[in-house]
Request: fold
Amino acid sequence: MTSLLHSAATDGSWFPLWLRAAHLVNFLLIGLLIRSGWEIIASHPRLYWHNDCGPGTEWVKFTKDEVPLEIGAFTARDDQRSWSPLLVLPGQGKIGLGRAWHALVTSLWVLNGAVYVTLLFATGAWRRIVPTSWSILPQAWDSLKIYAGFGVPSIEHFTPYDALQKLMYFTVIFIWAPFMMLTGPVMSPAVVGRFPRYAKVFGGRQAARSLHFLGMIFISFFIVMHVTLVFVVHPRYNLPHMMFGVGDPARFAQALTVTLIGTLIVVLLWLAASYWTLSDLRRSQRILWSASEPVRRLILNRFRSAQAAKHAFTEEDISPFHWVNTRTPTKEESPEWHALRADDFAGYRLEVGGLVAEPKAYSLEDLRTRFPVQENITMHTCMQGWTGIAKWTGVRLRDVLATVEPLPGAEYVMVESFGKAQHMHDARPVEPYYTCLPKDVALEDETILAWDMNGMPLHDMFGPPLRLRIESMHGYKMVKWVRSVSWIHDYAEVGDGQGGTREDSGYQHINARI
Ligand SMILES: Nc1nc2c(c(=O)[nH]1)N[C@H]1C(S)=C(S)[C@@H](COP(=O)(O)O)O[C@H]1N2
Ligand SMILES: [Mo]
Reply:
């Protein structure tokens, strides 16, 4: 038996190259996922167990700010934190790029995991990880007792892993990783818009977010324990195994050197990812989002919101508190809006034009009487991480668009606001907030121009006289204080060419539903 063990340990069959490579790649990618995950948390540093994100209902928060309940007194943007690029990816509050990294690395990590698990089963190596007898439990307990007494199980127990180690690795690979892959998609408004019941499996969208976060805490602890034990428990075997595939204590010094250099390189790559990203934001935006686009297109872009159609939420689910992202435009920012507001928007006309045969303009009264009124109870998902459920009443954008005849080449719908952007990418004076919608999104069943929220005319903070609702996308697409709707040929021709204010100045993507 010992000689058999010895041969498996020394001829490299226990730790083949593919296994060692997948391990290294996983180390790099998990670090990128954790770091970009923290960037996402920084943009709304509060975690909740239910869908409402009411101040004071967090179970944990990473900010000292207290939020008054008064509407818009403290906005979701005020709440955003900026953390160091040494800690998070990319850092400096660049949430758009943090999300771009998280999306991209998720695909790479799933791919690496799929290759690893496939080879695990194809080569029979799964036996080392998957327990096949309940006797593993008492054996693991024995190991645990030895560790608890600061002892170390003897080397014969490691074939190649001891019972406790096997149990932990099994948990990480076959329980933790699928758990992260199942909770992650609940963050996507496209996924929960299309499959609202899926979020309920985890107790709702915020509960899933909290569980995803706890999964991150678990793996962080695991990594610390794992690394410590590798160095404490028979390191003379572990390190040569990990580096060269052979349990040859004679090569320990060499393995230690390679391990330390390798770790240093990985850590430097984590940091380099941040500094590279921040060194040219526009280039990073383009590269990172394009890299994840094929996968997003294949899956997420096909999903249409069916929250109202499936009666995902009832009046009871309506959130008592709904975050505000951006405050009502001031008199200086939009005298026009204030003039209209002064007589209750009686003089307001929604302009519907652009690349059309004949532009139209509709008063609020026209909209109410000429089109079917639609009421949707839906969940608003801001890419920062907060949500809020509300009932929105208005008319379908597609019904309004049907009254104008688009000219050939009209591919996108641009919606412009009376409100202004908070800042511009290149620090020029702020321009009106706008967004461009791909045709299919503009025409979705649940895409509406809303005038009521929870049965009441929109509060000034929430975008009167009309605000856009797009239930399969993030909040930044939902223009408040809508001035006009226009068919355009290509979003590259308007603004800074990225598809909207948040895309231009926040490095988001025009069609990122993640
Ligand atoms: N005009 C305008 N509309 C806007 C924004 C903005 O800054 N200006 N912010 C968007 C973002 S990022 C979100 S999350 C939602 C927030 O909507 P709420 O304030 O009604 O909750 O508004 C969107 N619409
Ligand atoms: Mo948002």
In short: Residues 16-44+80-230 form a domain with the Fumarate Reductase Cytochrome B subunit fold (CATH 1.20.950.20). Residues 1-6 have pLDDT under 50 and may be disordered.
